[in-house]
Amino acid sequence: MVGYLVFLTISTALFALFALGLNLQWGFTGLINFGHVAFMTVGAYTTVLLSSQGVPLVIAVIIGAAIASLLGLAIGMSTLRLREDYLAIITIGVSELLRLIALNEEWLTKGAFGVQRYPLPLAGFEPNLIGKIIMIGLLTFIAIFTVWQLWRGMRNRWREGKSIKGKSIQPRKRIGLIIWSVIALALILTVYVNGVIAISNYYNYKVGLMLIVLLVLTAIYWGLELLVHSPWGRVLKSIREDEEIPRALGKNVFWYKLQALMLGGAIAGIAGAFYAWQLTSVYPANFEPLVTFNAWTIVVLGGAGNNAGTLLGAVIFWAYDVLTREYLPYLGILNPTQLGPLRIMVIGLILMLLMVWRPQGILGKKEELTLGR
Q: What percent helix, strand, coil does the chain show, rounded to 5?
């Protein structure tokens, strides 16, 4: 059970990281990217191929993120001056092009056989008592930071819910905030306790990877929060709402869009490295368009233009994935080959209902909604 929760924590964290890049591009800037998996593909293959040739893992990840960023530059230079739908079409084509290159260029990517037996972070690390205490301390820091961010987010939502006259928000909304806070605290506590138990008694490579991905996710989340609440981030939001306004104020709209596309691509490239490390073997089939669909599902569920919402969306997405994967077979209604398509159909139905009931997502703001623009 502990090992399975470690796997779920890694999956949730790396897809949250992956979706944060998409949220920066679409949620904050309004760039429609239907081929986000292309950046993950570049990051994953660059990291594993370079590290297999003796390049240190940290440098390999940085190079992978840089190449993913350059891919965003190439896409942006050719499409951002055109209509938004061109960007959506080009990104889909690029993602499929890269997957087919990985499938057919066997001299570089081993083709359908995949890349295997590449270096993994902390693979041979066996922590002693002091090392375990340090790791538990880092996990405690992450938990405290997460609780602090949860408190700030809920406090702001509570204040935003008050009217101009100072009247309190509706009791129904109060109850909703309290319920979400309790659920989030329970999840944080579960991950923390499971992490402490895993580090103390069941340490292996995946436990170390879990700690690393949580640290990286925390750092990137905090960095993005600083950026999107800075003047740079406010320009991105104004571009999302009506790019003619910042252009009239003398802002280089094209350059800001390019920065958002490149930075979001770099974050997805880093997520690709963790994806490869979690899989321990990389195949072209791991980077199909469904991965991009998962990221869009996470962003839409949590709320576009809200980094905390992206984290919440990742948690909900993987909770749904686990529950349906584990318990649907016990119903005995469908055979295993039918369960996969059914799970995708159900989450599509959930998204449609969400678009009707709460189109801005769980933590999103309706006044900042970019759907349908």
A: 80, 0, 20
Q: Of 202, 231, 258, which residue is a domain's last?
A: 202
Residues 229, 208: one domain? yes
Q: How far apart are CA 97 and CA 102, in angstroms?
A: 9
pTM: 0.90
Domain region containing 16 = 2-126+203-368
Q: Which of 194, 195, 183 is nearest to 150 (CA)?
A: 183
* Domain count along the chain: 2
Residues in the chain with pLDDT values less than 70 = 156-174, 176-177, 331-332, 334, 336, 364-373
pLDDT digits (tens, 9 = 90+) for 153-186: 777 666 665 544 455 555 666 676 677 778 778 8
| Whether 29 contacts 239, CB under 8 Å | yes
> Residue 281 is inside which H or E element, if any?
strand 281-282
CB-CB contact of 64 with 47 (8 Å): yes
Q: Are residues 84 and 196 in the same domain?
A: no
Between CA 101 and CA 80 the distance in angstroms is: 25
For the record, the structure tokens of 132 come out as 């375990």
Contact of 81 with 254, CB cutoff 8 Å:
yes
The string of DSSP letters for 292-340 reads HHHHHHHHHHH-TT-HHHHHHHHHHHHHHHHHHHHHHHHH-SS-HHHHH
